[in-house]
Design a protein that fits this description.
Chain B: Pathway: Porphyrin-containing compound metabolism; chlorophyll biosynthesis (light-independent). The complex is a heterodimer of chains A (505) and B (518). Chain A has 505 residues and is of the alpha/beta class. Chain A folds into 3 domains: 115 residues, Rossmann fold (3-Layer(aba) Sandwich); 98 residues, Nitrogenase molybdenum iron protein domain (Rossmann fold, 3-Layer(aba) Sandwich); 153 residues, Nitrogenase molybdenum iron protein domain (Rossmann fold, 3-Layer(aba) Sandwich), CATH 3.40.50.1980. Chain A contains 22 helices and 14 strands. In chain A, helix 14 packs antiparallel against helix 15 and helix 14 packs across helix 17. The longest helix of chain A has 21 residues. With 518 residues, chain B is α/β, with parallel strands linked by helices. In chain B, 50% of the residues lie in helices and 14% in strands. In chain B, the strands form 4 sheets. In chain B, strands 12-11-10-13-14 form a 5-stranded parallel β-sheet, with helices on both faces. In chain B, strands 3-2-4-5 form a 4-stranded parallel β-sheet, sandwiched between helices. In chain B, helix 1 packs across helix 7. Chain B is globular, with a radius of gyration of 28 Å. In chain B, 50% of the residues are buried. Classes of the chains: A alpha/beta (505), B alpha/beta (518). At the A-B interface, helix 3, strand 3, helix 4, helix 5 and helix 6 of A face strand 1, helix 2, strand 3, helix 5 and helix 18 of B.
Chain lengths: 505, 518
């Protein structure tokens, strides 16, 4: 118990980041095809790799493989490795076969470790083949050399963001504004302010011009004027286009759309959309906001390459996160968020039966899917004590708002800030778990059964990736997952068989 | 390049890892990128292992690509040596390290100097061999290493045990019903008055490998893994190597007879000296078991089994199980095996020879679409195959019994389910019978138009709800997975009624979810 206390006391009052050896268990990022092929209905994912990749997909995705999946392996053989075969010709042959069998609207090539090592020029080959076979080919390098698990989705969405149509009206719209009017301000909120002033500037500019010029954008201008004069039609109140990025089940996307609609904000599109042919338009002046913490490359690409403006917000996981997420978007558009406090409170009320179970209990995140910070922040708000947040990779800029909320939450709940361990070392973590004896370890399947056998309750972390956890509506689903081992143990309590290994742990 | 959706045998390193983690106190270190340690998940989930799988990765990342592994692999080996003190550390190459072509042997040599554990590099080429071949090779490699080490240290135990004894070689983690088979073989040997010397690799210790030559003979239950080690020991110590798989009544008898032939070469009076159970002769024992202890012979004779006569079946799996199953079905149950096949392409000749005369055609392939096409063409009454064939059967509405890896978690049963020995024959009879009756029941139901001729009109108990679903609500409802849709619908309607709403749209649905939390 003494070590227990000392380890807790060691924790700091401000955020600190540790980095271990990176010897941890996670899924290979190619696993993203599992949910992305289902999300993007007219796609086909071709994983260019070896038997190892194929074996992983086949085993990790279980029964899905038998439902005529829209993904396959381009399995590299010895001739491909030693360059006796021509990569381009081989890929063309396979892609033509896919075109004939499935006729998808897009083929996504997933580059793997092997294509990296043999330096197969997928990006170079894709445009040529695309022209030859007439199907768009998107290249994403989702390999285990560079990325972990959910980051696979990030690489695919980053690649796909190049394929989003350019928003034309916006270009014309922007062309009319003299460049100097766009001030180079860092803060997003200030950028929004700048945007608003641009609009006003534009209005006056346009009014001075001939009326014929107004025809193109007269609708929005009139709405704008109405709003200015306080005659606002709430629902059609104009704001710059907002595109959300991150792959979510259609139901959850609808829920988040509706949350924003309640605030008068219209979501003009999602990356990815339900179909490749419906990718949202992006471009200068479009605001984008992420829904998942692992999408930093996509965010960077949208900002740098597509000139979008990023709204940095906490992620809509848990009622606290969802509220903060909506408030941040509202604030950027200078809307006053309405009724959120009440709504958040009512959601918390509905969770009370679950909260009773977990209040005061401790949790240890071993780290494997990058959702850890958001989940930890939510669980701390629920009254849990988080000992450690293991995480594969921490983008402090993209997660800045989430980290700030974590810090604030710890302060509000009067608990020490947990240590955040990047690239954790599973062996060391197991030693720490042994010392701390947390009430719950959130971990991968490789460690779950052995930990359970040693009397440590575990929740399999991958479930958080596949379950619906976003928005107000799904807060209960997160707790359903978190409390499941605790509820199960309640029903087994009294049987006396908690430790089921002979060795001392 | 090959367009592939599914594979029967895994990549080479899986075979090596299965050998390593089957032994006690052996640790495998994979030279692999992040995410390639999926083996740990499989072992922990499928086998429901209580212990941490003794496999770690020496991660290959960008830095390794740029500068080579350098100290990393050596450090990982010596670290593991200190942390867990294994007897043996097995450095396992993967497809990635195959193409990096780093001198892993050099790392092993350097690490061996510093560590107390033995260190060896698994000698497998990812692009030439599959999981089963790699497992076979690695097992032979480990056995050879420890035999040679013992020779050098002069502590090899070559004096035969007093009573006849056997090594069982090839019982594995993640093997198809291997644990149960092992128990059944031990029981059989106990009946026969044969002691068990060593069982490898499952539960075995590498330190004890020097005792292998003490046994009178080696017993290799499965062709896929263990044969190389068996042949090595045969060559080195002239130990007889029994490779007849005791699966089915006829083959079990053949296997027992082969064992006693081998014992006689060592001690001509073996049979008389060491009585089988109840002091019977071998022939008597086999006859007793077949006629009265096992139910399979009687089952074949019973009128139930008559109905199977001439029914078409297809068999597919690894060489051992597919060949044995083909022979059981056609020889012991009177079925007609239209096609027998295996994905063990490297063992095709042996397979053909085994099933000759027991089936109409032979299919050697590792492409599941060819197997699927064959099944669709043959239209058998039942399939006996792997999980893949089970799914093909589902699609074609043909029942399937699973007889071979690759398998899912349901094929790691907790109860005692051997496929080998006399209890194995009972299990196989059940499996075959259950597959067919299900098929026939289905067929009869179809003929007589289902279980009940009355159509079920409504699934809900209340007659009129007075609620209307808007199109968007209905669309959202249809997105909910079938198995919970009814519950969600009921809860939503209840919520709507309580709040006196009579139109249900998406918003009401979500509000209902939030309020009841269902």
């Amino acid at each position: 118990m003494t070590t227990n206390v000392s380890l807790i006391e060691k924790k700091q009052e401000s955020l600190t980041f540790e980095c271990e050896t990176g010897n941890y268990h996670t899924f290979c990022p190619i696993s993203c095809v599992a949910w992305l092929y289902q999300k993007i209905e007219d796609s086909f994912f071709l994983v260019v790799g070896t038997k190892t990749c194929g074996y992983f997909l086949q085993n990790a995705l279980g029964v899905m493989i038998f439902a005529e999946p829209r993904y396959a392996m381009a399995e590299l053989e010895e001739g491909d490795i030693s360059a006796q075969l021509n990569d381009s010709k081989e890929l063309k042959r396979l892609c033509l076969q896919i075109k004939q069998d499935r006729n998808p609207s897009v083929i996504v090539w997933i580059g793997t470790c092997t294509t990296e090592i043999i330096k197969m020029d997928l990006e170079g080959m894709a445009p040529r083949l695309e022209a030859e076979i007439g199907i768009p080919i998107v290249v994403a390098r989702a390999n285990g050399l560079d990325y972990a698990f959910t980051q696979g989705e990030d690489t695919v969405l980053a690649a796909m963001s190049h394929r989003c149509p350019e928003i034309n009206t916006q270009i014309e719209f922007d062309k009319k504004i003299p460049k100097k009017v766009t001030p180079n301000i860092e803060s997003v909120t200030e950028k929004a302010l700048a945007f608003a002033s641009e609009k006003i500037g534009l209005k006056s500019l346009n009014l001075k011009k001939k009326n014929s010029h107004l025809k193109g954008s007269s609708g929005t201008e009139q709405e704008y004027l109405l709003r200015q004069e306080g005659l606002g039609v709430e629902k059609t109140k104009s704001h710059p286009p907002l595109v959300l990025f991150g792959s979510l089940p259609a139901t959850v996307a609808t829920q988040l759309n509706m949350e924003l609609k309640r605030q008068g904000i219209t979501v003009s599109g999602w990356l990815p959309s339900q179909r490749y042919t419906e990718l949202p338009s992006v471009g200068e002046g479009v605001y984008v906001c992420g829904v998942n913490p692992f999408l930093s490359r996509t965010a960077t690409t949208l900002m740098r390459r597509r000139k979008c403006k990023l709204i940095g917000a906490p992620f809509p996981i848990g009622p606290d996160g969802t509220r903060a997420w909506i408030e941040k978007i509202c604030s950027v558009f200078e809307y006053e968020a309405k009724g959120l406090e009440k709504r958040e409170a009512s959601i918390w009320n509905g969770l009370e039966d679950y909260l009773e179970l977990i209040r005061g209990k401790s949790v240890f995140f071993m780290g494997d899917n990058l959702l850890e910070v958001s989940l930890a922040r939510f669980l701390i708000r629920c009254g849990m004590i988080v000992y450690e947040i293991g995480i594969p990779y921490m983008d402090k800029r993209f997660q800045a708002a989430e980290l700030a909320l974590l810090q604030k939450t710890c302060h509000d709940m009067n608990v020490p800030i947990p240590r955040i361990v990047e690239k954790p070392d599973n062996y060391n973590q197991i030693q720490r778990i042994r010392e701390l004896q947390p009430d719950l370890a959130i971990t991968g399947m490789a460690h779950a059964n052995p930990l359970e056998a040693r009397g440590i309750s575990t929740k399999w972390s991958v479930e958080f990736t596949f379950a619906q956890i976003h928005g107000f509506t799904n807060a209960r689903d997160i707790l359903e997952l978190v409390t499941r081992p605790l509820r199960r143990n309640q029903s087994l309590e009294g049987l006396g068989w908690t430790k089921l290994v002979k060795s001392a742990f | 390049m090959k367009l592939a959706y599914w594979m029967y045998a895994g990549p080479a390193h899986i075979g090596t890892l299965r050998v390593a983690s089957s032994f006690k106190n052996v640790h495998a270190i994979m030279h692999a990128p992040l995410g390639d340690d999926y083996f740990n998940v499989m072992r922990s989930m499928l086998e429901r292992e209580r212990d941490f799988t003794p496999v770690t990765a020496s991660i290959v990342d960008r830095h390794v690509l740029a500068r080579g592994s350098q100290e990393k692999v050596v450090e990982n080996i010596t670290r593991k040596d200190k942390e867990e003190r294994p007897d043996l550390i097995l450095l396992t190459p993967t497809c990635t390290s195959s193409i990096l072509q780093e001198d892993l042997q050099n790392f092993v040599n350097r690490a061996a100097l510093e560590s107390k554990s033995d260190v060896i590099l698994a000698d497998v080429n990812h692009y030439r061999v599959n999981e089963l071949q790699a497992a076979d090779r690695t097992l032979e490699q480990v056995v050879r290493y420890y035999i040679e080490k013992a020779k050098k240290q002069n502590n090899l135990e070559i004096i035969k045990t007093e009573k006849p004894s056997a090594n069982i070689i090839g019982i594995f983690t993640l093997g198809f019903h291997n644990q149960h088979d092992c128990r059944e073989i031990k029981r059989l040997f106990n009946d026969l008055g044969i002691d068990i010397n060593e069982v490898i690799p499952e539960g075995g210790s590498v330190v004890n490998l020097k005792k292998l030559p003490k046994a009178w003979f080696n017993f290799i239950p499965y062709r896929e893994v263990g044969l190389m080690a068996g042949k090595y020991l045969e060559k080195e110590f002239q130990m007889p190597c029994i490779t007849t798989t005791p699966m089915g009544l006829v083959e079990t008898a053949a296997s027992i007879q082969e064992i006693f032939q081998a014992l006689k070469t060592i001690d001509p009076l073996a049979e008389e000296k060491f009585h089988v159970k109840n002091k019977k002769s071998i022939e008597e024992y086999i006859d007793q078991q077949a006629r009265f202890i096992s139910q399979a012979a009687w089952f074949s004779r019973s009128i139930d089994c008559q109905n199977f006569t001439g029914k078409k079946a297809v068999v597919f799996g690894d060489a051992t199980h597919a060949a044995s199953m083909t022979k059981i079905l056609s020889r012991e149950m009177g079925l007609r095996v239209s096609c027998a096949g295996t994905y063990c392409k490297h063992d095709a000749d042996w397979f053909r020879e085994q099933v000759q005369g027991f089936c109409d055609e032979v299919l050697i392939t590792d492409d599941h679409t060819l197997v699927g096409d064959m099944i669709a063409r043959v239209e058998p009454a039942a399939i006996f195959g792997t999980q893949m064939e089970r799914h093909i059967g589902k699609r074609l509405d043909i029942p399937c019994g699973v007889i071979s890896a690759p398998v899912h978690i349901q094929n790691f049963p907790l109860g005692f389910r051997p496929f080998l020995g006399y209890e194995g024959t009972n299990q196989i009879a059940d499996l075959v019978y259950n597959s067919f009756t299900l098929g026939m029941e289905d067929h009869l139901l179809e003929i007589f138009g289902g279980h009940d001729t009355k159509e079920v009109i409504t699934k809900s108990l209340s007659t009129d709800s007075g609620l209307t679903w808007t199109p968007d609500g209905l669309a959202e409802l249809n997105r909910i997975p079938g198995f919970v849709r009814g519950k969600v619908k009921r809860n939503t309607e209840k919520f709507a009624r309580e709040n006196s709403m009579n139109q249900i749209n998406v918003e009401v649905m979500f509000a209902a979810k939030e309020s009841v939390g269902a």
